[in-house]
Design goal:
The complex is a heterodimer. By secondary structure, chain A is mostly helical. Chain A is built from 4 helices and no strands. The N terminus of chain A is likely disordered. Chain B is of the alpha+beta class. In chain B, strand 6 and strand 7 form a beta hairpin. Chain B is elongated and about 70 Å long. The chains are: A mainly alpha, B alpha+beta. Chain B: Its EC number is 1.3.5.1. Chain B: It comes from Rhodocyclus tenuis (Rhodospirillum tenue).
């Protein structure tokens, strides 16, 4: 193979950092497939319409208790952060599917947004105290 | 030719580099019977109408993988596609496989694929030297099932013509080569996974795949390259993170 014109090493020998992003994408995908429909049902339909669940299921006090419980914090962080990483990866690769040559700039925007969202969620959960 | 013989128009994408500036369609009217394949239609053109038409073929029975073309825009083996199925429209369009340079008419340049195929070491690399006196390898039905469907690949390249990522990133090692890589890595007789995993984890490797799945749809041999590629991603992720624990390599 003649790659001498290319000052960088050929793509065949450069290790892709993709396993990190693909693992976050996969974790987010699994989580969203398993719980996102139920989250939509609970937060978007059941509680506002007063169906199935107690009227105060999502009251401020109940939600604050969830967010102040260490296990609750971990679950909230996982849901928010992994959904973001999943979406960032999917949108980035969908751009490629659509023929838009999304390079490192787009990587920075999408994965950067997921990273900032993760930081923001973690920060907010810490500020709420225990 | 009797007057009531059925005919179909076959539109072929022609390209003869020494005289054509660009590929162009040429239509032939071909008499056909219900048992005639698209390949036989092309052979009729070459034998009876226009001897300059070039196309690859060999076995006529979906074993050799030579006669892959785009038929009405879908990658297919021309020997396994029948003119009768296009008779409703009265015409069928035959073009060289997408995502490859055209050498001449329906013949593509497949050097890039051969390089990719070589890069995945498509042969059993024994775990340790094994004398003939040790006899044959024994495998359980479960061990056979782990790789059997992937060994049906005939390198016809329909999956490369189907894959949007191959079209966008010519470096991408692609569905068939990754399916064969997975086939050997999954074989209980093989010990070469550590040599092949760098191909999966490279920038040109499995992570180009965005799980479109069209490769598996067009495969004429029932191979599921999309599944192999995505299982290879999982293996690569495990290998990547195990590497941080000093347990790199292997499956």
């Amino acid at each position: 193979m003649n790659h001498s014109a290319n000052p960088r090493r050929p793509a065949q020998t450069r290790r892709s950092p993709e396993p990190i992003f693909w693992a976050l994408f996969g974790a987010g995908g699994m989580l969203s497939a398993l719980i996102a429909p139920m989250l939509v049902l609970i937060t978007g339909i059941a509680v506002p319409l007063g169906l199935l669940l107690p009227a105060d299921a999502m009251s401020y006090h109940n939600m604050l208790a969830l967010a102040q419980n260490p296990l609750g914090k971990a679950i909230l962080l996982a849901v928010v952060a992994l959904f973001f990483w999943h979406a960032a990866h999917r949108i980035f690769h969908s751009l490629h599917d659509l023929g838009i040559d999304a390079g490192n700039g787009a990587r920075l925007i999408f994965y950067g947004a997921a990273f900032l969202a993760t930081l923001a969620a973690a920060g907010a959960l810490l500020l709420l105290g225990f | 030719m009797s007057t009531n013989e059925k005919t179909i128009e076959i539109e072929v994408l022609r390209y003869r580099p020494e005289q054509d500036a660009a590929p162009f369609p040429q239509t032939y009217v071909v008499p056909y019977s219900d048992d005639m394949s698209v390949l036989q239609g092309l052979q009729y053109i070459k034998d009876q109408l226009d001897g300059t038409l070039s196309f690859r073929w060999s076995c006529r029975q979906a074993i050799c993988g030579s006669c892959g073309v785009m038929i009405d825009g879908i990658p297919k083996l021309s020997c396994k596609s029948f003119l009768r199925d296009y008779a409703g429209k009265g015409r069928v369009r035959v073009e060289a496989l997408a995502n490859f340079p055209i050498e001449r008419d329906l013949v593509i340049v497949m050097d890039s694929f051969v390089e990719k195929l070589e890069s995945i070491k498509p042969y059993i690399i024994p775990k340790e030297p094994r004398p003939l006196s040790a006899g044959e390898y024994l495998q359980t039905p479960a061990q056979l099932d782990a790789y059997a469907q992937y060994s049906s690949c005939i390198n016809c390249l329909l999956c490369y013509a189907a894959c949007p990522q191959v079209g966008l990133s010519p470096d991408f090692v692609g569905p068939a080569a990754l399916a064969l890589l997975f086939r050997y890595n999954s074989d209980s007789r093989d010990g070469g996974a550590a040599q092949r995993m760098p191909v999966v984890g490279a920038e040109s490797g499995a992570f180009h795949c965005t799980a479109v799945g069209y490769c598996s749809e067009v495969c004429p041999k029932g191979v599921d390259p999309a599944s192999a590629v995505n299982q290879a991603k999982g293996a690569s992720v495990r290998e990547y993170f195990m590497g941080f624990l000093g347990k790199g390599g292997g499956k």
